[in-house]
Design goal:
393 residues, alpha/beta, Aspartate Aminotransferase, domain 2, Aspartate Aminotransferase, domain 1, three-stranded antiparallel sheet, 14 strands, globular
Length: 393
Amino acid sequence: MHMTAKPATRPQSPNFSSGPCAKRPGWSLSSLTGACVGRSHRSKDGKAKLAEVIDRTRAVLGVPKSYRIGIVPASDTGAVEMALWSLLGPRRVDLLAWESFGEGWATDAVKQLKLKDARVLNAPYGRLPDLGRVDFAGDVVFTWNGTTSGVRSPNGDWIPANRQGLTICDATSAAFAMDLPWDKLDVTTYSWQKVLGGEGQHGMLILSPRAVERLESYAPPWPLPKIFRLTQGGKLIEGVFKGETINTPSMLCVEDAIDGLKWAEAAGGLKGLIARSEGNLAAVEAWAARAGWVGFLAEDKAVRSCTSVCLKIVDPAVAGLPIEAKAAFSKRMVALLEAEKIAYDIDAYRDAPPGLRIWCGATVERSDLEALFPWLDWAFAAAKAETAAPASA
């Protein structure tokens, strides 16, 4: 069987996973030597570290002073669930789902919270739902960037300033890579392990004054676990938003988050991070146009993610295969690349259409992507040759 020659250049880092994502360039364990370990997170030093994360986050993201920023348990999932269980109920709700995580939040609202006045606006992978149908007299729950579909909101123009309900936005693969319009977002969540390449299990919850007002004026009819409770006696627990976390955080992860934020500042702040991610997407687009065998799940460039770039194989010999065979083909490509230690964890998400998913967030160097592209071509040619071999035997 003929095999295309392997490229000579290798990526410096093979980490293209969409979560946890690549560490910042130059990261090593020595970056954590200042961690406040072996100490209480409630000590003066521990609380200072947690407050530093909040303060640097506000500065880099440009979060308004009137918004609260809290560090909460259980990654982005915990932050979203905290918002859904604490805030939903008093108004009707539209749930936008164009990928697996949005579908998960819709399921929670409809099947777990059993909200009667809830509407799910779906779109297939690769597309957005009709944003013109969203009813802002009620609450709206959506992902800013569909991590598993590679589709993002193009901007915040579709969200009115004079909305009556709250907007609850899962921004976990958008924060630090996309320009989030804070005046259009009442609840924003993300996790450390995405764009800044932090460690898992810690979520960020950002609340507008309107969200705080809802929390202080509405008591959900269902019980709330301790790790979800943001109010006491009808008042916001302000300590949560000053570094007094609900449960015990990992101070190693906190130090890593500080390290990532310092790198973000040095990389040009939010504008610099966005430029890095958009530049990475542009590199993928240029390569895909040259390669010919691959296309984007998000065909509309206006809604194409610059972080979780989802690709589909458009070569007729593969695109025409049954879905199981297409999935096996992409998995074979992934296996070939992993065996060569060229790229790790780039298979499509398990619920998404078969293909590849390459993280292009700010911690990924464009030079590593440029080195990856010839290897992707090699893996495609090798997998195609293997697929054709039995038929020609």
